[in-house]
Amino acid sequence: MNIIYFLMPLALLLGAGFVGAFIYSVRKGQFDDLETPAHRMLLDEKSITTKEERKQL
Amino acid sequence: MSEFYRLRDANPPPCPLPQPSIISNFAFFDDPEFKKKFSRDDQQMEFYLEGMTCTACLWLLEKLPELCADVTFARVNMATSTIFVKRSPSGSFATIAGRLNQLGYRPHPIKDEKAASALQKREWHQSLIRVGLAGALTGNIMILAVSNYAGAQGLLLHQFQILLALLATPILTYCAWPFYKAAWSAVASRRLNVDVPIVAALLAGIIMSGVALKNGTDAIYFDSLSMLVFLLLASRLFLKSVQSRHLDISHLENDLLMGAAQRIGANGKVETISALGLRRGDLIQIEGEMKIPVDGRVLNGTGWIETAVMTGESDALQIQTGSSVEAGSCNLSGSWQLLVEKPLQESRLANILREAERSRETKPRMSIFADRIAQWFVGTVMVFALAIVLYFLGSNPQEGFTRALCMIIVTCPCVFGMAIPLSMSLAIRNSARRGIIITNADAVERLWAVKKLFFDKTGTLTSGKMTVLNANAIDASALAIANALECNQSHPVGKSIVQLFQTIGGEKLTATDVEVLPNGRGIAGRVAGDWCTIEPDETSNPQTSLKEVRARFGLFVNSKQRAVFEIGDRLRDEAKDVIGWAREQGYSICLLSGDRKPIAEHCALSLGLEAAEVIAESSPELKSQTIKETKVPCAMIGDGANDAAALTAASVGIAVRGALDASLRASDVYLLRSDLSGLPELFLIANQANSAIKRNLLFTVSFNLLSGALAATGHMTPLWAAVLMPLSSVTVLISAIWTGQAKA
């Protein structure tokens, strides 16, 4: 049974790590806009105009 | 741009193509006075964009630096329809705004309130961290607590209990802090709210568990308490996130209170400045179609203006030297100079809007029914718990405390703390999906109590624009001639004819020697060699019996009448259905109009209303007076600054026109779609949410009466209480979500 004295603090430490990561990401503003990133990830990094179109502009 | 169209078409309902607005002069965006108010550090500005709806818009807008050399960075937020831009050192905000407008997204600058937005952000972060921390700790506590229930004994049990207590400490202090704060402020102001019993249960639980931990008995409830805190926090965060999804209108400067002005300097030079910079005594040039930004007096020149903002009616008015003109009016034609008497912020329009906003802020909020029940309920439970403690104080204090705690835990009014906010936030979310924005949660409940509906006429039941009503009776060649004469005029009659021509189509003719007849009675010109005039026609018999006809204009070719145009304000297509729906639902209806009596009554009759249900010729002040004198709870459905006071006076104000109208600041609900069909949906959603709330209340009260009685008579252990309480909570939550989903 002594193993739990090692495993439990380890589990809790792991949990603390995730809580820390969560707090960090909240502070960095990753949860400020919950809608736009979902759309943004679908977009390719295409340039706005093709060469022909640029000529027209 | 092919990528834009590919993305747009890939989205199931292609969004309407953006439309540039008529106002294209954004030069005042570079005015120092303006920048001081709206830009951050003179480098960054945030805009609310009209017409941004889909992924294609996002793609296009974030490519702004490629399209406009003045922008170095652009970031879009789709939830609030805003874009944040940084300008290059030499960039101009006027160019950026002009480019955005050219793309079809009309920009509305957002006030830079650094302190307020930073505070809001910090609060949001803090509540997220509270929920996250509570969730993580509660999860661990639940896992560890299993060993205790599974029969851990002796030293191991005690160690587990200490561990649980340690893990629960941050939840019961840091995470639960909002409850302590709210309960304290309630107690300090001698009220009872939902937080009081929550805190009472928390404190009682903490003390009992602490004592048990010290004495080595097993009456330890850290796990139940943690779970309670986590669930309550999570449901409140959900409510908050649903409510704050849309841009808070108060960050936007009222569109009416903004604009450019052409100031005539001392040396006669004309410069474009922000209307904010105008001072009393300045002289401004008014030309073409534009908004008049100040109250003033016409110095010289004549023209036609429209005062729909103040009166709600879109008739054209003639002005000449000496006439006084109010801010918010719109110049239709003519070129004239205006002497500023009252700058924008002191104008009558600004006063009306300020008044509406202030009275909305100070509107006495009818206390939510659920809150009143909660107070009564909480008070009763507290009295009973105290009575039990006192009763056992002499004989068996331990037993008394246990029973009291049992009762407090089992009757914990989760329905007030979680289920009701959840029902309300689901209703808000569901209506937002349908383009109906509910600005505060208690409006959901007030909608339910509404017995009487007041409708504004112009712009609400009607389209608010002049149209040709007898379109079928006009032949195409006459229309083509009329179009040739009117195509460059901004008079409402001319516009309605041009509009008709554009929808029907026909041969495009050109007119020469076009001149406006004296006093602006009409217009004359030469089309294909013939001398043609359009002027009021008082002689001929009406072709239609419509009383909503405001004016009758005849087209004369070489003094011979060719056609008659009957001009008026058309009813919206869905208006009759909406009135029919309101009748069916048993609401009493009243048409509250600023228009002349015969017109208002005719409009009512054609909608299936009776003459007795019409109050015509009401000024903005009279409208709000009528509503204040109404005894039953009522809803006002209106638009425009002239209805602002009435919208605030009603128990629910519903603004119908678009997203950026003056009226919406005064309203509790606004319809993003520019039609009335959202109205029945709004009431349906509100009524469903309210019946779910009532059902949950009934369930909770009966459940708590039963379980409270069992606890008081000692038939329940705290463990059973801790099991039953979440069970009842889950029941009401499922019931709330189920109702919310059913209508989604």
Please give a structural write-up.
The complex is a heterodimer of chains A (57) and B (744). By secondary structure, chain A is mainly α. In chain A, 63% of the residues lie in helices and 0% in strands. Chain A contains three helices and no strands. Chain B contains 25 helices and 27 strands. In chain B, helix 24 runs antiparallel to helix 25. Chain B is α+β, with helices and mostly antiparallel strands and 744 residues long. The radius of gyration of chain B is 32 Å and the shape is elongated. The two termini of chain B are 35 Å apart. In chain B, strands 6, 7, 8, 9, 10, 11, 12, 13 and 14 form a nine-stranded antiparallel sheet that branches. A seven-stranded mixed sheet of chain B has the order 15-27-26-25-16-23-24. In chain B, a hairpin with a 6-residue loop joins strand 18 (511-516) and strand 19 (523-527). The interface between A and B is medium-sized, with 29 and 31 residues.
What key attributes describe this structure?
heterodimer, A: 57 residues, mainly alpha, 3 helices, elongated, B: 744 residues, alpha+beta, 9-stranded antiparallel sheet, 7-stranded mixed sheet, 25 helices, 49% helix, 19% strand
